[in-house]
C-alpha cells in the first residue's frame, strides 16, 4: 500500500463534493425544512424550529458515524464493487426524489443493488465498461461478505441516529379526529447523509480521473471512493409520543444491523448466508416500519383536547417552557391561580402577573405539579408553547 494512503483518502473525500447526489440531498433537506415550517405556521402561527434545521442536522448528526464506518471498512480491507456502488447510488437517488422516506433505510438500497448485479450477471450478457465487466463481479466471493457487512453497519448507524436524533426534531401539527376535534400528531421526516469512503478494486475510476487516489496491493490496484450514503426516516406518532417510539425503534434497528453483520460474516464459510443476511435485514426492517405505522393508526390520540385545561403540542427550544421542563401531552390546568381552557384564557392569565408566571400542570399520567417561571419581555407570550386548539 502506498505510504501516502492517508493523503489519498483525504483527496478522495474532497471529490465527494463533486457528486451530484450530494447536492441533491442538500436541496431536498432545504425543501423538507420549508414544508415543515409552512405546516407549523398554518397550525400554530409560529414554527417550532428554523427552516434550515434539516439542512444543518444533515451532517451534524451523522459525521461521526460516517468517520467510524469509513475507517473501519477501509482499515479492515473490505473491498466492494464499482458497479454495486453505481446501482446503490441510483436506488438512493430514486428514494430521495420520491419523498417516501419510510423506505429510506440503506438496507433496501444495498440489497436491491446487490441482487440487481446477480440478475444482471445471469441474464445481462458480457457487458464491459472501461475495464469493469459484469462477468468479473465476484457475486459468490468477497461481495457476498462485504455487502451484507456494509449494510449491517449502516443499519446500526441508522438505528443510532433514530434513537438519538429524532425526538427533539419531531414536528407537531394538528389533525381532525373522528369527532371533529383537532388533536396533535408528531411527524418526523428526516434525512441524514453519511459520507463514507469505500475501497474499490481496479482502475475504472482512474480512467476518467487520472489523478484519482489509488494504492496497490501485490499486483492489484485499488481506489478510494467517497459515497454519500442516504438514510431517510418518515414516521408519524399519534397514539404515543416521539420519546416513547423512537428509542425503541432505534434499538430494534440496531439489533437488526448486528444480526445482518453476524450473518454476513457467516458468508466466509457459505456465500449464500450473506445473501440470506440481506433478505433478513430487508424483511425485519420492513416489519418494524409496518408494525409502528399500524400501532400508531389504531386507538386514540396521545395529545387530544382536554376539558381539564390546555394541552401542550410542542415546546419551542430555548423558551421558558423548555426551561420549566414542560413536555408535549402535558395539560396546563391553571395559570396564576386562574383556570384555563384555551389559548386566549392562557394568555389573559399570564398577563395577571407577567413577571412571575405560576402554573398548575398535569403530566401525561395525570399527576399535578406546581411550577413558576420568570418571564421577560423578549419571551414568547405563551411561554414558548404550541397548543392543541
Name its key features.
389 residues, alpha+beta, Pdz3 Domain, six-stranded antiparallel β-sheet, 12 strands
Number of strands: 12
Strand fraction equals 15-25%
Name the overall outline.
elongated
What summary fits the major beta sheet?
A: 6 strands, antiparallel
Helix content: 40-55%
Structural class of the secondary structure composition? alpha+beta
The residue ranges in which pLDDT falls below 50 over 5 or more consecutive positions are none
The radius of gyration computed from the alpha-carbon positions, rounded to a whole number of angstroms, is 25 Å
Number of helices: 11
- Measured between the Cα atoms of the first and last residue, the distance is 65 Å
Overall pLDDT = 86
Order of SSEs: HHHHHHEEHEEEEHHEHEEHEEE
Query: In the residues, how many domains can be counted?
Result: 2
Written account of the structure:
- The protein has 389 residues and is an alpha+beta fold.
- The protein has two domains: 5-297, no CATH class; 310-387, Pdz3 Domain (Roll).
- The protein is 47% helix and 21% strand.
- It has eleven helices and twelve strands.
- The protein has helices at residues 5-15, 20-44, 53-60, 63-76, 82-98, 106-123, 143-164, 242-266, 271-297, 320-324, 343-352; strands spanning 128-129, 132-133, 171-176, 182-201, 214-217, 220-237, 310-315, 331-335, 338-339, 356-362, 368-374, 385-387.
- Strands 7, 8, 9, 10, 11 and 12 form a six-stranded antiparallel beta sheet that branches.
- Helix 2 (20-44) packs across helix 3, helix 5 crosses helix 6 (106-123) and helix 6 (106-123) packs across helix 9 (271-297).
- The radius of gyration is 25 Å and the shape is elongated.
Amino acid at each position: 500500500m502506498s505510504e501516502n494512503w492517508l493523503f489519498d483518502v483525504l483527496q478522495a473525500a474532497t471529490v465527494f463534493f463533486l457528486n451530484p447526489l450530494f447536492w441533491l440531498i442538500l436541496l431536498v433537506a432545504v425543501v423538507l425544512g420549508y414544508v415543515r415550517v409552512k405546516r407549523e405556521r398554518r397550525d400554530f402561527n409560529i414554527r417550532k424550529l428554523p427552516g434550515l434545521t434539516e439542512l444543518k442536522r444533515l451532517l451534524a448528526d451523522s459525521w461521526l458515524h460516517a468517520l467510524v464506518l469509513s475507517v473501519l471498512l477501509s482499515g479492515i480491507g473490505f473491498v466492494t464493487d464499482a458497479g454495486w456502488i453505481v446501482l446503490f447510488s441510483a436506488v438512493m437517488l430514486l428514494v430521495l426524489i420520491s419523498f417516501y422516506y419510510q423506505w429510506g433505510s440503506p438496507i433496501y438500497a444495498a440489497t436491491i443493488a446487490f441482487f440487481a448485479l446477480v440478475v444482471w450477471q445471469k441474464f445481462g450478457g458480457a457487458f464491459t465498461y472501461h475495464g469493469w465487466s459484469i462477468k468479473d463481479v465476484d457475486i459468490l466471493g468477497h461481495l457476498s461478505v462485504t455487502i451484507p457487512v456494509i449494510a449491517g453497519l449502516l443499519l446500526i448507524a441508522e438505528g443510532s441516529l433514530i434513537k438519538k436524533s429524532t425526538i427533539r426534531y419531531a414536528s407537531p401539527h394538528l389533525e381532525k379526529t373522528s369527532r371533529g376535534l383537532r388533536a396533535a400528531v408528531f411527524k418526523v421526516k428526516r434525512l441524514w447523509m453519511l459520507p463514507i469512503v469505500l475501497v474499490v478494486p481496479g482502475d475504472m475510476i482512474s480512467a476518467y480521473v487520472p489523478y484519482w487516489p489509488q494504492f496497490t496491493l501485490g499486483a492489484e490496484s485499488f481506489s478510494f471512493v467517497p459515497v454519500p450514503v442516504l438514510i431517510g426516516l418518515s414516521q408519524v406518532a399519534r397514539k404515543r409520543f416521539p420519546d416513547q417510539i423512537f428509542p425503541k425503534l432505534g434499538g430494534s434497528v440496531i439489533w437488526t444491523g448486528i444480526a445482518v453483520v453476524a450473518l454476513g460474516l457467516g458468508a466466509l464459510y457459505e456465500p449464500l448466508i450473506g445473501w440470506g443476511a440481506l433478505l433478513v435485514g430487508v424483511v425485519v426492517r420492513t416489519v418494524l416500519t409496518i408494525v409502528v405505522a399500524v400501532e400508531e393508526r389504531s386507538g386514540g390520540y396521545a395529545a387530544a383536547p382536554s376539558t381539564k385545561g390546555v394541552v401542550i403540542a410542542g415546546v419551542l427550544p430555548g423558551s421558558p417552557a423548555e426551561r420549566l421542563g414542560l413536555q408535549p401531552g402535558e395539560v396546563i390546568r391553571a395559570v396564576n391561580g386562574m383556570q384555563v381552557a384555551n389559548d386566549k384564557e392562557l394568555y389573559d392569565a399570564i398577563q395577571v402577573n407577567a413577571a412571575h408566571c405560576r402554573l398548575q400542570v398535569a403530566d401525561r399520567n395525570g399527576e399535578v405539579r406546581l411550577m413558576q417561571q420568570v418571564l421577560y419581555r423578549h419571551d414568547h407570550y405563551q411561554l414558548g408553547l404550541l397548543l392543541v386548539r
